[in-house]
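NF2L3 factor, pasting as requested.
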Amino acid sequence: VAAQNCRKRKLNMILNLEEDVCNLQTQKESLKKEHSQYSKSIIQMKQKLKDLYHDIFIHLRDDQGRPVNPCHYVIHYSSDSSVLIIPK
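Structure tokens follow.
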């Protein structure tokens, strides 16, 4: 009887572990999809930021009215929501 109970417990453990593996595989697939969506979102945001930088620098002029070179300046966002154009 003790051996039979031991085998039964072992079988229950195996079944529980198989169920856990199945659940973890499902969770893994879900997380992979979520990661893929976030990666796409990040790529889109980076492109929008790049486009925004381009648009801003097209309209910027120095004191003499010449276009500001984006290679020499960077846009800085401060914590108080102000935006500054500062030399690199």
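Note for the archive: Residues 50 and 68 are 16 Å apart (CA to CA).
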